[in-house]
Write a structure and sequence with these properties.
34% of the residues lie in helices and 24% in strands. The protein has helices at 8-20, 31-40, 45-62, 67-70, 75-80, 105-109, 114-139, 158-161, 164-180, 195-204, 210-214, 223-233, 391-397, and strands at residues 84-88, 94-98, 147-152, 185-191, 216-218, 284-288, 295-302, 307-316, 320-328, 332-342, 349-355, 359-366, 375-384. A hairpin with a 3-residue loop joins strand 9 (320-328) and strand 10. Helix 2 crosses helix 3. The two termini are 42 Å apart.
Length: 398
């Protein structure tokens, strides 16, 4: 919403809001900045005031005002976290791309503390906002200080997204962003989104303001469709050729890796713990032989939609094959977490999925690929009820 398009009633609300918060030390004194907080609370002046004062307290508690100057991100994040500014859209807003699907977020989270990862999110957001404000003051453009964000979900992996810390930090990051950086995004493009993204989006959606949801445009893998949508709002010379534009790197690379970090697998040498994981007291233990017959299936009957199937396991003797699937009466076995070999002898594996359908779910541990080494598996698996507030939870409570 632009200042010039406000009706008289909204202008009066903005004027009163400005008077109410005149004692606050704001990062941006302009009316455009104050308007963001009103939009985020649907012009409820009392709620907007509560929101901005709570955010100021959060900034003070976490030292946010000085974080760009006083804090340096860990090397593993600067090397492997995907993000970068590629240009500007047709509304003079900077355009950022994140190759989310290529990023090894679980590797990053195993290489830094949660505190440092969340500080990086604050550092990055503050750095981008500061640059937008400075540019806006200098040029008089993009006075609302908004950005366009492109999230490329190519190669998005269930193994990445079901890792418990990924889900936890993602939810926490979403809440912090919505509560402290309202109306920061002009547009969000999600491209190359697989079916898996729908599950993730439904988890995040309850924590998103409707104004944020309205700005999202989500596309599958039809490049012609999403490239046309991008070019409606971004000139071709401001988009890498890989994303439907005309921009290339000096060496001709159409993905323009010089403009943004495209992400990659994090080497184990960065992991915080290079010692063997330690079994928890609550874990069960089974021995799995090598070769033919070296597998174990654990079956779970889900009676309530959106129940949460969680797992935690480690092995002794080497890696183990892992797979989670749904036994569909109509279509047979449907992979939820496709088979992959998990190095759970190095790092305890944790993850979870939301069981969107009732029926039988199977967790498979597979050692048939190993001809000589049996594995000792220690595991804990539980089915939790739907998250509070969800429709399934309310129906189950009745």
């Amino acid at each position: 919403m632009e200042l010039s398009k406000l009706d008289e009633k909204s202008k009066l609300v903005l004027k009163e809001f400005k008077e109410r918060v005149q004692d606050c030390k704001l990062v941006d004194p302009r009316d455009e900045y104050l308007l963001k907080w009103l939009v985020a609370r649907s012009f409820d002046i009392d709620e907007a005031e509560k929101m901005i004062r709570a955010s100021l307290a959060w900034r003070q508690t976490n030292g946010v005002d000085e974080i760009v100057k006083n804090w340096t991100p860990p090397e593993v994040i600067t090397k492997y976290f995907s993000l970068g500014k590629i240009g500007y859209d047709k509304f003079d807003c900077p355009v950022f791309i994140c190759a989310h699907g290529r990023m090894d977020i679980r590797g990053i989270l195993q290489s830094v503390t949660k505190k440092d990862y969340m500080r990086f999110q604050m550092w990055m957001t503050e750095k981008v906002n500061r640059e937008m404000r400075e540019e806006s003051f200098r040029t008089g453009k993009n006075t609302a200080c908004q950005m366009t964000f492109i999230a490329d979900m190519t190669n998005l992996s269930m193994r990445q997204m079901t890792y418990k810390p990924v889900m936890e930090t993602g939810l926490e990051q979403t809440k912090i962003y919505e509560m402290n950086y309202p109306e920061n995004l002009r547009r969000i493009f999600v491209i190359n989104a697989p079916k898996l993204f729908t599950v993730i989006y439904n988890i995040m959606k309850p924590f998103l303001h409707q104004a944020t949801i309205d700005k999202m445009r989500i596309f599958g893998t039809d490049k012609e469709e999403w490239a046309a949508a991008l070019q409606e709002e971004i000139e071709a010379d401001m988009l890498p050729m890989h994303y439907g534009g005309t921009m290339v790197d000096p060496d001709g690379d159409p993905k323009c890796p010089s403009k943004f970090n495209m992400g990659a697998e994090v080497p184990y040498s960065y992991y915080l713990s290079n010692s063997a994981p330690v079994a928890k007291d609550y874990m069960e233990t089974i021995n799995i032989i090598a070769g033919a017959g070296g597998w174990k299936k654990l079956k779970y009957k889900i009676d309530v939609e959106n129940s949460i199937l969680k797992w935690e396991f480690m092995t002794e003797g080497g890696d183990i094959g892992f797979r989670v699937y749904y036994k569909s009466p109509e279509e047979g076995n449907e992979d939820l977490v496709p088979f992959s070999r998990i190095e759970s002898h190095l790092i305890t594996e944790e993850g979870e999925i939301i069981c969107t359908r009732t029926g039988k779910y199977v967790i498979l541990f597979d050692n048939t690929f190993s001809m000589l080494r049996p594995k000792k598996l220690r595991y804990y698996i539980v089915v939790d009820p739907p998250l509070p507030g969800s429709l399934a939870a309310e129906q189950h409570a009745r």
